[in-house]
Amino acid sequence: MRRRQFNRALAAAGVAAGLAPFGMVRAQARKLRVGVLLPRSGVQALIGQSCQKGADLAPGVIRQLLGVDIEIVNADTESNADTARTRAERLIQEGAHVLVGAFDSGHTAAIAQVAEQRGIPHIINIAAAPQITEQGYKFVFRNFPTAIDLTRNGLALMGEIFRATNTVPRSAVFMHVNDTFGQAMAKGVGALLPRLDFLPFKVLDTIAYDPAARDLTVEVSKAKAANADFLMLVCRLNDAIILRREMAKQRWNPMGIISPGSPGLYEEQYTRALGPLAEYAICNTVWFNPKSEMTKIVGAAFRKQNPKDVLDFHGTNVGYTFDAIMIAADAFKRARSTEPKALADAIRQTAIPVANRMSLGGAIRFNPKGQVEGNLSAAIQNLKGKPTVTLPAEFAEAKVVFPQPAYKKA
Amino acid sequence: MPIDLVANVVIAGVLTGLVYGLMALGLSVIFGVVRVVNFAHGEMMTIAMYATVALFAAFRLDPFVAVVPVAAAFFVFGYALQAGIINPFITRPEHAQFMLVLAIAIIMVNGLLMAFGPDARNVQVDYQLESFALGPVLVDKARLYAAGTALAVSAALFAFFKFARIGKAIRACADNYLGARVVGLDVKRYYAFTFGLGSACVAVAGCMMILLVDVSPALGPAYTLLAFVIVIVGGLGSMGGALLGGVLIGVSEALAGLFITPSAKSMFSFGLLILVLLFRPQGLLGRKP
Prior knowledge:
The complex is a heterodimer.
Chain A: H1 3-19, H2 22-27, E1 32-38, H3 45-66, E2 70-76, H4 81-93, E3 98-101, H5 105-118, E4 122-124, E5 140-142, H6 147-165, E6 171-177, H7 180-192, E7 202-209, H8 217-225, E8 230-234, H9 237-249, E9 257-259, H10 268-274, E10 282-286, H11 293-305, H12 311-335, H13 340-348, E11 377-383, E12 386-391
Parallel strand pairs in A: 1-2, 1-3, 3-4, 4-5, 6-7, 6-8, 8-9, 9-10
Antiparallel strand pairs in A: 10-11, 11-12
Helix pairs in contact in A: 3-11, 3-12, 4-5, 6-7, 9-10, 11-12, 12-13
Chain B: H1 3-34, H2 41-59, H3 63-86, H4 94-116, E1 131-134, E2 137-140, H5 141-163, H6 165-175, H7 177-182, H8 187-209, H9 219-234, H10 239-259, H11 265-279
Antiparallel strand pairs in B: 1-2
Helix pairs in contact in B: 1-5, 1-8, 1-9, 1-10, 2-3, 2-4, 2-8, 2-9, 3-8, 5-6, 5-8, 6-8, 9-10, 9-11, 10-11
């Protein structure tokens, strides 16, 4: 080949490449590639692995229900926001059409930035920090309550618990993790609590602590010294276990532990690590709808894939992760394209009825900010080694126990 | 602030600090004699914690019993590590030693991840959730036993270096490398022995620490850093300094958590480190170079 021929060939190749936009190549794909980002190792590994179970069963169930082929590409955020960001970049480079994840608000915020910059839809499975959907992002969608909604629902359920048990606790000590999620929840509690007249208690002390703390002696000593009737807790999993053990060591038996909406207390590892100490903890949080048709279908797939696991321990993580992938698949089916903008437009038009979602709430519809409103919470209490729905009454599996039997008035 | 609350927190800080001190003691002994900074120290403690968990799971061996086989195994491991890998690096530049030990640390963390996965593990002994009540003050049983063991092991180590023939020989090697060789001491063998002793120390600390915290592979680097803070505060190479540094860090973190905010606890140990570096760079009980 002579020099001129070579130059012409090179120019032709350049023009051809320029005329074949990236999106057009993507649009030809028959499968939707879903990049799933979760903290499968590090301090949040257990919850990340629990969410992963929802992602693992999604392709089979969705193919059966929608006739859509999806391919899950997994990435481990290692419980670290920087890693979450780089993994999101890599998933996009590897051809992910949509991102799902990532359980933690801090990690999710980092992924959302990447998704927005690269113009790839990001559907949040679990993350409550309100600011994520307040940035004016066009490619970020969340089917999970914001911390404010989560707190509002959680505090309302607290009132229901006190009414149902005929108790009037006068004081609480509020402990929360000081990560993005914990701080968002604390802000929510601080803003909402003074306005909720139906709640009879005052917060005597607020104690923030490191979610990666190895020792919570000082924190629990301080909380115990507040001499409050009950502990209001926003936690993660490992810290919740350490904290409960420390409460036992310090012989602190308040009326109960109630979370206005956080993970930790209802997880399998919490019960496994603590045994009887795990009993009676209450978490007013998002949950899966035990009566929905979708729960039955997903539950069957879950039991097939995880014969040793109990859905009750994983239902929320599985449900919200599955629903996020379902939203992506539903949009792909309607858009008939993997082109990012078409997918984002289709996600914006989502209207999944209650019966077709696993998580507890109304129909899945995104508001102009990309946020689903109307996700509900339930009061979940550990009873006989199992997280049990105790309120609202229409979903209740057992009556709520409050105060806990070991309660000793100080 | 109620006095019993302060007393509870200070006692917990002192007891935890003693276990921290024992961990740092191993690092200080190794540096004081061999003059190699063991950047795999926290990782070694993490392995000891996993070994205790494994022995408990397999034979229901209480950590206070497991301490004997784990410390013995770590003595052999430390001896072999020094004799086989670190001794050839003794006369090489410090950055080469640093890279060597750091590589060993990384291998240890990844080995633990492969063997045990990322999940936190612990042991569940009967007395773990119990406490002694001294009036309004509650003393955590496991923490008290762990601190007592740390004190006993530290005392034994002091006595060994002060009175035992081998201990005296090791001190001679530390004081004057050339002089020790001139009088016929096998310096490299004593170095290996010292590394073994330091490793056994950290193994005992690991067996005690598993009673206080859950172990995961990611814990190693955090404890290496903590051990460094402690020995720099106490004085690198000083055995008494390591114990003092441990207690100071334990108590300062506890009090900072109580009086300021719990989430800023570790900030105060680093604040203490900066103060010591500014006003007494050799550490509280360290000797001037």
